[in-house]
């Protein structure tokens, strides 16, 4: 009898190792299953298995004597690995039942093999009682195995744990274990398996939805972006032109500059000088008294001609009346009139239209320089206002980024706190969350302080009283089609620096011509005519014509001046050529830089999108209990950095276009600003 049982037992073992579709009867005990398989005996006790699934529920009568139902308790699993020495004796179906310790749980296929009579398994474990399980004659009502109740702290979702979003409030649940149906097939659902608090973190896949709770930290002290007066960029440019004191001073200087130009342009205008005089004279000699009265009226006209000559004309008329108390002195009245005309024409020094009109040309060139200086002042102030406005807009966006970063940090804190309260994360992780929140608060305060500083800087440029100005438009980046060759031609026509250099060359050429003229001999042709009409005497007429020649010897200042003006001309030409080359290079470089910055804007936008997606993925992993807080914080920092990078790239690109307009000299045309010089 014993030999027969051993033979049957050997056949059963042989069938187990060869993986044949033969029923394998397992009679577990509490000590055997707890020591070898390290898993819950509640799911194994009282069942008989075929390879590949659960065949049929064992009846309560088949449980060996000496083993009570209360002893079949769920034991926590400390390890998911079965000792290698025991794996050869464990049926494959038992390995499938260790699914709570593996991420993927296979659903066993139903078995339709008929149930065979029980086989004795007394040799499975030494000294274990023999169990004979007869086939059930009729269905047996299922009996639930009672176990000590524990307070349920949350609900476990049914089905695939990776796709559920049930709330875990404090700890993981303990579900009641029901016995298998007496007959038929059953799909084993992973959600019905027990979950343990000491499972490895990477295997905890139950999602967590954070309930609405109070903020983890108090709101950041200090103001957010203050309410104020929203201004667009066009309005800021208008305020800068109207209120900036530097522009006002430039316009005031234009009054004197236009007056100087008017004086230079009137060089060949005639000057008229009228004269009138009245005199009384009384002379007493002893008892004789003599009285006289005279009146004189006249005028003078002086005019320069472009050839270098000068014409002077004078007219005068006078009358005298005399009276005396002596009889021997006869009273008399006299009237006289005179006319004179003088002409002086240089023949060497100072002769010629070019020499005599050079001062007018220099004055006109200086006027052009003054206008260019005014335009440069306007362009610089407008450019500074644009940069200041965009810097304020950048500071405002930085505050928004910092606020959003702080909000995300607080949300992460809530998620992590829920995981800690659920026993899924250690409480020490909250320290890292709180440090992250404090860091975000510091960044927010810094961004707010920078916003106020930039706002005050913009108000300084606008020269307006302190009021809460805020940007009234969003950052808009558009692809500008830049034609480098056209921009270079525009720069040569409008750039103030290059035009100044060209005017300096023109002025240097005129100054050199005047210096060379001063070194010539002084030869003048003079002609004069005079006429004097007397009432008491004969009229007189005087005509004169002459020529004079002179030169200073021993004075080397004339040669020194010529050399100095020649050097100034060469230097001006070199400066003009250098300005031209630098301008063309600068325009080409700024066009290239603008195109590169536009590419950086596109790449920064992609980087920001990827960083946001990565943060969302890390937050989802943390919500599912599979992520780590340091990864979320790192992803959040990457999002902040990406947002700032995109913002900086956008501002840099827009500023590059503004700087290009300033270099080319078309800022006033871009903003449709016309320079109107005030009248005298």
Automatic annotation (TrEMBL):
Main location per the UniProt record: membrane
Region (Disordered): 1-20, 104-191
Gene3D superfamilies reported in the protein's UniProt record: Outer membrane efflux proteins (OEP)
Biased amino acid composition, Low complexity: 112-122
Any single GO CC term annotated in Swiss-Prot or TrEMBL for this entry: efflux pump complex
GO molecular function, one term: efflux transmembrane transporter activity
Subcellular location: Cell outer membrane
Biased composition (Basic and acidic residues): 1-11, 140-164
Superkingdom assignment: Bacteria
Coiled coil: 594-623
UniProt keyword terms in alphabetical order: Cell outer membrane, Coiled coil, Membrane, Transmembrane, Transmembrane beta strand, Transport
Homology family: Belongs to the outer membrane factor (OMF) (TC 1.B.17) family.
Protein name in the entry: Outer membrane protein
Organism the protein comes from: Oscillatoria acuminata PCC 6304
Taxonomic lineage of the native organism: Bacteria, Bacillati, Cyanobacteriota, Cyanophyceae, Oscillatoriophycideae
């Amino acid at each position: 009898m014993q030999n027969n049982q051993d033979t049957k037992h050997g056949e059963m073992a042989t069938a187990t190792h060869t993986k044949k579709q033969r029923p394998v009867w397992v009679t577990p005990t509490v000590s055997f299953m707890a020591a070898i398989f390290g898993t819950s005996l509640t799911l194994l006790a009282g069942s008989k298995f075929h390879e590949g699934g659960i065949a049929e529920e064992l009846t309560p009568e088949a449980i060996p004597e000496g083993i009570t139902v209360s002893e079949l308790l769920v034991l926590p699993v400390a390890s998911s690995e079965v000792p290698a020495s025991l794996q050869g004796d464990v049926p494959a179906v038992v390995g499938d039942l260790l699914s709570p310790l593996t991420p993927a749980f296979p659903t066993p296929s139903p078995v339709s093999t008929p149930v065979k009579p029980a086989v004795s398994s007394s040799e499975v474990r030494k000294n274990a009682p023999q169990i004979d399980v007869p086939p059930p004659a009729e269905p047996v009502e299922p009996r639930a195995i009672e176990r000590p109740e524990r307070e349920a702290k949350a609900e476990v979702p049914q089905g695939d744990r990776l796709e559920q979003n049930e709330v875990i409030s404090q700890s993981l649940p303990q579900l009641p274990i029901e016995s298998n149906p007496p007959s038929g097939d059953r799909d084993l659902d992973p959600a019905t398996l027990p979950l343990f608090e000491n499972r490895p973190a990477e295997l905890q896949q139950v999602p967590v939805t954070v309930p609405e709770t109070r903020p983890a930290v108090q709101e950041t002290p200090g103001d957010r972006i203050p309410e104020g007066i929203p201004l667009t960029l066009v309005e800021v440019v208008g305020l800068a032109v109207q209120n900036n004191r530097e522009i006002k001073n430039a316009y005031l200087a234009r009054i004197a500059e236009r007056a100087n130009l008017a004086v230079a342009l009137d060089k060949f205008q005639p000057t008229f000088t009228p004269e009138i005089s009245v005199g009384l004279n009384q002379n007493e000699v002893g008892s004789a008294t003599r009285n006289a009265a005279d009146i004189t009226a006249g005028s003078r006209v002086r005019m320069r001609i472009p050839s270098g000559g000068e014409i002077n004309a004078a007219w005068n008329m006078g009358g005298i009346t005399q009276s005396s108390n002596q009889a021997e002195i006869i009273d008399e009245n006299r009237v006289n009139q005179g006319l004179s005309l003088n002409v002086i024409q240089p023949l060497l020094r100072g002769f010629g239209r070019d020499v005599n009109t050079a001062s007018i040309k220099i004055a006109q060139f200086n006027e052009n320089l003054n206008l260019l200086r005014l335009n440069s002042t306007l362009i610089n102030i407008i450019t500074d206002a644009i940069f200041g406005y965009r810097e304020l807009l950048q500071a405002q966006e930085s505050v928004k980024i910092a606020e959003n970063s702080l909000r995300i940090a607080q949300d992460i804190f809530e998620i992590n706190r829920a995981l800690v309260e659920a026993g899924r994360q250690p409480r020490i992780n909250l320290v890292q969350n709180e440090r992250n929140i404090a860091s975000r608060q510091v960044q927010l305060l810094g961004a707010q302080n920078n916003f106020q500083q930039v706002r005050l800087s913009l108000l300084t440029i606008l020269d307006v009283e302190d009021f809460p100005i805020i940007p009234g438009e969003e950052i808009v980046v558009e692809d500008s089609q830049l034609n480098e060759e056209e921009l270079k031609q525009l720069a040569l026509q409008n750039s103030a620096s290059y035009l100044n250099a060209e005017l300096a060359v023109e002025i240097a050429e005129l100054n050199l011509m005047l210096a060379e003229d001063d070194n010539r001999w002084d030869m003048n042709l003079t002609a004069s005519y005079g006429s004097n009409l007397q009432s008491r005497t004969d009229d007189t007429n005087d005509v004169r014509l002459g020529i004079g020649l002179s030169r200073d010897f021993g004075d080397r200042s004339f040669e020194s001046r010529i050399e100095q003006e020649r050097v100034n001309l060469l230097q001006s030409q070199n400066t003009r050529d250098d300005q031209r080359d630098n301008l063309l290079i600068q325009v080409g470089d700024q066009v290239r830089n603008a195109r590169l910055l536009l590419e950086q804007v596109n790449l920064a936008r992609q980087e920001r999108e990827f960083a946001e997606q990565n943060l969302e993925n890390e937050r989802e992993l943390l919500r599912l209990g599979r992520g780590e807080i340091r990864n979320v914080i790192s992803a959040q920092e990457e999002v902040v950095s990406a947002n700032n990078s995109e913002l900086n790239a956008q501002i840099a690109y827009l500023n590059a276009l503004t700087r290009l307009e300033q270099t080319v000299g078309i800022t006033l045309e871009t903003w449709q600003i016309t320079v109107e010089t005030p009248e005298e």
